[in-house]
Amino acid sequence: MTLDEVLAALFPGGHTVQPGPFGTIDGTARIKGAGEIIVVGIAGGTPLGIGGALLLAGHVLDAVRAGRKEPIIVLVDTSSQAMARREELLGLNEYLAHLAKSLAFAAMEGHRTVSVLYGPAAAGAFIAAALSSQILVALPGAAPSVMDLPSISRVTKLPLDRLASLAQTTPIFAPGVVPLLATGAVTEAWQAGDDFAARLAVLLAGDHAAVDTRDQLGFERHGRLLAGEVARQVAAAAAHD
Amino acid sequence: MIAAVQIGRADWYEASARDRIAGLLDAGSFVEFLGPEQRIMSPHLAQFDLTGAFDDGIAVGRGTLDGQAVLVAAQEGRFLGGAFGEVHGAKLLGLLRGARERPPRAVLLLLDTGGVRLQEANAGELAISEVIHAILNLRRSGVPVIALIGGRAGAFGGGGIITACCSRIVVAEHARISVSGPEVIETNKGVEEFDSRDRALVWRVCGARSRYLLGGADGYVTGSIAAMRKAAAAMIADVPSFGMTMLQAEQQRLTDRLHRFGACRDAPEIWRAAGLPEPDRVGDIDDEAFLTMPRIAGADHDAR
Hints:
Chain A: It comes from Neoroseomonas lacus. Chain A: This is Malonate decarboxylase subunit gamma. Chain A: InterPro entries: ClpP/crotonase-like_dom_sf. Chain B: Keywords: Transferase. The structure holds two protein chains of two kinds. By secondary structure, chain A is an alpha/beta fold. Chain A contains eleven helices and nine strands. Chain A has helices at 3-10, 50-66, 85-89, 92-108, 123-130, 149-156, 160-166, 177-182, 196-205, 214-220, 227-239, and strands spanning 18-19, 24-31, 35-48, 72-81, 113-117, 120-122, 135-138, 143-145, 188-189. In chain A, a hairpin with a 3-residue loop joins strand 2 and strand 3 (35-48). Chain A is globular and about 50 Å long. Chain B has one domain (2-292): Alpha-Beta Complex (2-enoyl-CoA Hydratase, Chain A, domain 1), CATH 3.90.226. In chain B, 41% of the residues lie in helices and 12% in strands. Chain B has twelve helices and seven strands. In chain B, strands 1-2-3-4-5-6-7 form a seven-stranded mixed β-sheet, sandwiched between helices. At the A-B interface, helix 2, helix 3, helix 4, helix 5 and helix 6 of A face helix 3, helix 4, helix 5, helix 6 and helix 7 of B.
C-alpha cells in the first residue's frame, strides 16, 4: 500500500499528515470515538538514521509534554537503519535508543502507542520504530525482517535453498509477517478488504496490559515456546532468597 | 583468595563471562540462576548443524558489589559471538523482570554481543525489544542499570541499542559500540564507505575512546577486571533518572551533537572541531595519558 492509501484507509475522518525531513511524516488525525490522535512515521522506504530518529522522538516527546495523552500512531515504511560510517561515528545506537525510550515513555505516561507497518522494516529500524510501541499492526505490504534470507545465508554459510526450506518448518528465523506474528512480535495482521479504521478504533478503545506480554503471545501462537517459561523461572529465582 | 586476586588483575577482554563476574563481584558472592548444570539450551541450533552451550551463552544471577545486592548478567562473547537467541534473551529478560519485583541496588549488564543470533533471528530480535522495555521500566522504578562493555564481541546491533538504554555505560579499552557493524556496512555499501579490515578506522568510529570522548559512554577504564569493578561501584551511586526532564535533555544533547559534528566523517575531525588538544594523537597515547585528556564539552552528562 502507498502512504496515501494507508492514510485514507486508517483515517477516513481526515488527517493533517505531511512529509518532513529524512523521510519522516507527522500530523494529526481524527478517529471516531478516540478524537484527535498523533500520527508520526517514516515513509518511502527511507533508512532510519540519526536525523529521522531524532525528529520522530521529538514529535513523541512534544505530544507527551502537551499532556493530552492522545494515542500515538507510528506509520512505518523504512528499510533498515541507515548504514553509513558517519551514522555510526555520531552514535546511531544512542539515537535509535532515544526513539525507543521516547515511545516507551509515552506509553508509561498513558498514551496508547501503535506502530503500523505497511512496508519493509529491518534490524535496528525494526526495533526502534516498530517494536517500541505497545502494539504492532502489519498491513498488506508489510515486510518485517531481522535480516533477509540471502544475507542470513551469507553470514551463516548455509545454502539459501536449505534456509528457505527450513523457513517452512519454523518461524524462529525467517523474515515476514507470518513468522513474526507467530513469535509474538506482530500483534495483529490486517488483510486487504478489512475496515482498517474500524479495527484501529477497536484497538484504541480496548484495554491493554501495562506489562509486556509478547512472550505469552509467542507461546500461545506456538512461535516461541521457551522464552516465557525461561524468563519466568529466572525472574522467580531473582525475586526470592 | 589467590585466585580472586589473579582474576582481579586479569584482563576483561580475555576473561570468560563467569571470570568477569567472579572478579567484578565480592569474592564468592555470585549465585547463578538456571546455570549450565540445568542445561537450558537452545532447541534451534541443531537444525543448523551447530552445537549448543549448556548456558546458551549467558550467565545470570545475584551477588554483592562492595556489600550491595546486585543482579548481574554476563554474555559469553566466545559462544556464537554472544548473540541473542531465544533462551539467551529470555534469561536476561527474566533477570530484569525479577529485579522489578524485588529491587536490587543495581543491575549490571556485562554485554558482549554481535547482536541477534541469525539462526534464531526473530526470537533474538524480539528478546532485544523485550529487554529494552524491561530496562526502561526498571529505570523508571528507580533501579540503576549499568552497562559494562569491553569484550571480544563488543556491543553491536541491538546490543548497541540496549547499551544506550542503560543508566550508565562503562567502556574498557577494547570496547566497541555500534549498530551496524563495519562488516555489515562494507557488505551493503562497499569498501569505500567502510573498510572493515582497517582496524584503526574501526577503532576511531566505534571504539571506546571515541565513545567516551563524545559522551556515548560515561566511564573509561583500562582493561583490568579490577578497574571495571571500581568503575561499576562508582557509577551505581549516581545515575540519571528516567523521565521527561532526562528525555528532553537527551533530545537537546543529541540535537547539539548532530549540529556540531554532523559534517564530520572521522573521529579526529570531531575532536578537532571540538577543540581537543592534539586530536591526531588520541589513538596513540597510553591509557593514563588518555584519562588526563579533556572530553568534548557536554560529554559528561545526565541525559541518558
